[in-house]
Amino acid sequence: MAGRNGPGHRLDVRMSAYFLKASAASFCVSSRRALTSLVPPMNFANMFNPTSAIDDGHHKFALGWHFMGQAEEVHAWIGETTDVSGSRIDAPGMISWKFPGQRYGVLEIAYSPGLEIATEQYAQDDRVEITGSRGVIFINRGHGRITDGPATILCANGKTEGFNFSDADLGWPASFVHSVRHFIAALRSGEAPRLTGEQGREVLRFTLAGQLSAALGRAVRLDEVRSGASGTALSAAQA
């Protein structure tokens, strides 16, 4: 998966293959933001504001798209909090997705200003949980870490196994390095990257559907979000 799409970018291939043999029932991403960390906190732009950079949220939607495919419908509640610096943060928030075949996903955004997060990058903790017909996968490494334990946990066949992948660099910066190298290799070979421009546009439609849903106060189908039309519809809803 090209692009810096968080902990799922480094999911072990063996576990991914195991999971994909089963029918996924749900996909959950939890994103916790804090002010206290091992590095100075960052001010996050409102990722669902069309006049701002749609950054962090896009990566979460890309993970959902990677594991579950394109959603059919999105519903979002997106709150707003002013942090101690006076910046607006789009939290708390809950964005849910409906995929074909009775499969669902959710992105939970929490803001905990007093939470201390061990991190070398952002004051943010990201986790992914995927539930299938044969088991559950927990991916526990994103920007930061608030608990100790394995990077990835697999619960299946009555057993729980933890994986730390000691032979791999699980640091957040590694996803940037590998993504750029993969993209350059794809350009040189003429092969399509793991995430093409066309697919990235579909992920953007996915993201904009959540933005539009929060503005309209209702669920939004992906076929309602078309290139060039979503911004106009969103402006009308906010007027």
Overview of this structure, please?
This protein has 239 residues and is an alpha+beta fold. It has a single domain, classed as Dihydrodipicolinate Reductase, domain 2 (2-Layer Sandwich). It is 28% helix and 29% strand. It has 5 helices and 14 strands. It has helices spanning 13-20, 56-68, 172-189, 197-216, 230-238, and strands at residues 24-33, 36-37, 73-78, 81-82, 88-89, 93-99, 103-111, 116-119, 124-132, 135-139, 144-145, 152-156, 159-163, 220-221. The chain has a 9-stranded mixed sheet with strand order 13-12-10-9-1-7-6-3-14. Helix 2 crosses helix 4. The longest helix is centred in the last third of the chain and has 20 residues, at 197-216.
List the helices and strands and how they pair.
Layout lengths: L12 H8 L3 E10 L2 E2 L18 H13 L4 E6 L2 E2 L5 E2 L3 E7 L3 E9 L4 E4 L4 E9 L2 E5 L4 E2 L6 E5 L2 E5 L8 H18 L7 H20 L3 E2 L8 H9 L1
Parallel strand pairs: 1-7, 2-8
Antiparallel strand pairs: 1-9, 3-6, 3-14, 4-5, 6-7, 8-11, 9-10, 10-12, 12-13
Question: What's the count of strands?
Answer: 14
Distance between the termini: 38 Å
Largest sheet: 9 strands, mixed
Proportion of residues in β-strands:
25-35%
By DSSP (H or I, 4+ residues per run), the number of helices equals 5
Overall geometry:
globular
CATH fold type: Dihydrodipicolinate Reductase, domain 2
Instruction: Tally the structural domains.
Output: 1
Class by SSE composition = alpha+beta
| Assigned CATH superfamily | Dihydrodipicolinate Reductase, domain 2
What's the pLDDT, averaged over the residues? Answer: 75
Fraction of residues in H or I helices? 25-40%
Unreliable stretches, pLDDT < 50, 5 or more residues?
1-15, 36-53, 228-232
User: Which architecture name does CATH use?
Assistant: 2-Layer Sandwich
**Broad CATH class:** Alpha Beta
From the alpha carbons, calculate the radius of gyration and give it in angstroms: 18 Å
